[in-house]
Amino acid sequence: MEHVEKLPWSAGTWTTAPVRADADGDALVVEPAEGSDLWRVTSYGFIHDDAPGLLADLPDGAAMEVSFAWGASEQFDQAGVLLRADAEHWVKAGVEFADGHLGVGAVVTAGVSDWSVGRVDGWQGREITVRVSRSGDAVTVRARCTDEDWRLVRVAPIDPALAWRAGPFCAAPTRAGLTVRFTGWSRGAADASLH
Hints:
Elements: E1 5-6, E2 13-14, E3 20-24, E4 27-31, E5 38-40, E6 47-49, E7 54-57, E8 62-70, E9 78-86, E10 89-98, E11 101-110, E12 112-113, E13 116-119, E14 128-135, E15 138-145, E16 151-157, E17 165-171, E18 180-189
Antiparallel strand pairs: 1-18, 2-7, 3-4, 4-18, 5-6, 7-17, 8-14, 8-18, 9-10, 9-17, 10-11, 11-12, 11-13, 14-15, 15-16
Pfam family, one: DUF1349
Protein name: DUF1349 domain-containing protein
Organism: Propioniciclava soli
C-alpha cells in the first residue's frame, strides 16, 4: 500500500468486547468469547452478531490490512478483517479452521450471509495478512502468508451509501480459550486494479 498509516490499537472501537485484549509489545492478543460468531440466516437459520471486531473508519478509496498469527485447532476458529456498516451489512474475511482444514475465505452479508472458502493448510502457524480494499460499490479481498504473493480471495458488492468501518476480528464459535495475536493494522490507498 502506498501512503500507509500504521494504526494503533487505540484507534478502533470494539463491536463486542472480547474476553480479553492485552497489549504485548506492538502486538494485541485477543481472546474472543466461547460461542462468538458472525452469520445471518442462510442455510443454518440463525443470527450471530457477537464476534469482537476492533473497527476504524474505512472510506471509499481506502484499504485496510490486518496481520496476525495463531494456532487454530477447533471447529470454526477464525480470524481476519471485519468490514462492517451495520448488523445486516458486513464482510468478514480471513482464515477459518473447519472440518480439519485451514481455509481462506470471506462471508459477505447484505441481509443474509454467504460463504466462500479454499484450503490453505500450509498457512497453519505462520503470520497471515488480510487486506480489504474499497472502490465505489465494491470491496476486494486479498490475503497472503508471510511474504508470499497476494492471493485474490473475493470481489464483492457493498452499498457505497453506507458508512463502513474495518479492522481485526476473531471468533470462537465452538470453544473457549482461543487466542489470536494481531501483529499489524494499517490503512492506506485502495488497490489500483484487480489484477
